[in-house]
């Protein structure tokens, strides 16, 4: 019998997950129903933040973040080249400029010293924001980034797609969970099937900032506001009553008392599109699945940590290993990465054995799209060197010890042959 394929990551769907989706399919709401708010509340509790906004995917989450933080042409935003392209692209969607800073070769995270160097080399106000990424599941020290960002008047978007449940220890010895909003202005998560929580497509924005939260809710649904206290058009207009003279032209901000209309309340159908927003909503089906998956989030995280420690033990000190993810407190292990010699040959050898590893990531500054802005080989030496050697091993909660041992054995065989 042919050996079954072992991917680098995969979702875990249980009968409870399936029942949760079926129940929602049989309910009154497939979208814009109660499951979304419930998912947001439970997710906010899990992460430890005040507000959460569920959206269509992680990329939509990043785009909305860039919009509410006011990114526009001429703005410069710093991020890492070792991440998925969406972390940078959100700046381009709004016309801003992406400035890459190199990674720390030990943690693979955006190097705060490289960011400081950039910020110090230009007049204050040159850069508007920083997007650190909790890459592979390892939490960025956001306390340090916050104080740097404050020094230079920058906002922070934390890309936490890889790290629900991850944390770093702050200077007071407290655990700071990824996306908890204590340091970053906004954080985002993805629920793509290889992530910790899978909803097919899906994403979440978390924050402690009420003003940003309100803006996000509006922009998620076309820029539409449904709130009597915030309308800009008059009640008369909304009702369809004959308009007074002053009503025939623009009516923005006109006090309602100026009209002698008997109508004082907006009709229930009324809503206003006050901004150019999008349809970035998640469905209730996905929210129901996400809620069900969230119940197993801790369990999945513990299994990921266990798998990481088995890899650590198996490869520690072997001479073909240049570096490995290791076992780090607070690491959420979306990925377990080895840096090795002969990476291409190893990758192909493993594929022949039905083990499908992956490379995370091709440095974004060298993607043809970003090269057009002048980025070139040699700009990010640590990221480029990392890319030559990195390989992401199978890592997902349902990976059995037996399959993991098979992966380990095949890697050892390759180098010992
Ligand atoms: C670090 C990072 N940021 C953003 C995204 C985008 O998320 P999505 O695929 O849900 O749009 C991903 C997804 O792969 C990611 O890994």
Total number of β-strand segments? Answer: 14
Question: Largest sheet, if any?
Answer: 7 strands, mixed
What number is the mean pLDDT? 95
Radius of gyration based on Cα positions: 24 Å
Distance between the termini: 25 Å
Give a verbal description of the structure.
- The chain is an alpha/beta fold and 417 residues long.
- It has 14 helices and 14 strands.
- The protein has helices at 15-25, 34-47, 58-68, 86-93, 112-120, 142-151, 210-220, 235-239, 284-294, 297-315, 343-352, 368-371, 381-389, 401-416, and strands at residues 51-55, 76-79, 97-100, 129-131, 155-159, 167-169, 175-177, 186-190, 203-207, 224-225, 272-273, 321-324, 336-340, 390-393.
- A seven-stranded mixed beta sheet has the order 1-9-8-5-4-2-3, with helices on both faces. A three-stranded antiparallel beta sheet has the order 12-13-14.
- Helix 1 (15-25) packs antiparallel against helix 9, helix 2 (34-47) packs parallel to helix 9 and helix 3 packs across helix 4.
- The model is unreliable at 249-259 (pLDDT under 50).
Task: Summarize this entry quickly.
This protein has 417 residues and is an alpha/beta fold.
């Amino acid at each position: 019998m042919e050996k079954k394929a072992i991917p680098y990551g995969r979702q875990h769907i249980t009968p409870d997950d399936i029942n949760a989706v079926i129940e929602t399919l049989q309910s009154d709401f497939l979208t814009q129903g109660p499951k979304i708010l419930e998912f947001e509340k439970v997710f906010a509790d899990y992460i430890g933040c005040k507000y959460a906004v569920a959206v269509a995917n992680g990329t939509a989450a990043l785009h909305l973040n860039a919009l509410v933080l006011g990114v526009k042409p001429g703005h410069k935003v710093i991020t890492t080249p070792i991440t998925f392209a969406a972390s940078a692209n959100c700046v381009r969607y709004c016309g801003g400029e992406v400035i890459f800073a190199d990674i720390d070769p030990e943690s693979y995270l955006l190097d705060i010293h490289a960011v400081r160097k950039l910020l110090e080399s230009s007049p204050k106000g040159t850069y508007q924001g920083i997007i650190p990424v909790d890459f592979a599941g390892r939490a960025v020290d956001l306390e340090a980034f916050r104080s740097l960002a404050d020094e230079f008047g920058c906002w922070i978007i934390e890309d936490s797609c890889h790290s629900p449940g991850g944390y770093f220890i702050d200077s007071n010895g407290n655990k700071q969970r990824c996306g908890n909003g204590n340091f970053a202005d906004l954080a985002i998560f993805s629920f793509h099937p290889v992530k910790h929580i899978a909803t097919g497509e899906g994403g979440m924005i978390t924050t402690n900032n009420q003003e940003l939260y309100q803006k996000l809710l509006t922009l998620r649904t076309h820029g539409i506001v449904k709130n009597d206290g915030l309308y800009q058009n008059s009640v008369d207009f909304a009702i369809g009553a004959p308009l007074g003279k002053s009503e025939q032209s623009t009516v923005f901000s006109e006090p309602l008392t100026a009209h002698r209309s008997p109508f004082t309340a907006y009709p229930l159908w009324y809503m206003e599109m006050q901004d150019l927003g999008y349809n970035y909503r998640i469905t209730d089906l996905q929210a129901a699945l996400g809620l069900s998956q969230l119940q197993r989030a801790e369990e999945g995280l513990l299994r990921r940590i266990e798998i990481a420690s088995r890899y650590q033990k198996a490869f520690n000190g072997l001479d073909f290993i240049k570096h490995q993810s290791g076992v780090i407190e607070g690491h959420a292990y979306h990925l377990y990465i080895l840096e090795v010699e002969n990476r291409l040959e190893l990758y192909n050898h493993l594929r022949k054995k039905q083990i499908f590893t992956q490379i995370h990531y091709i440095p974004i500054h060298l993607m043809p799209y970003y090269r057009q802005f002048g980025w070139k080989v040699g700009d990010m030496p640590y990221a480029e060197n990392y890319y030559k050697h990195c390989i992401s091993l199978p890592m997902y909660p349902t990976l059995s010890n037996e399959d993991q041992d098979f992966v380990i054995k095949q890697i050892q065989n390759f180098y010992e042959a």
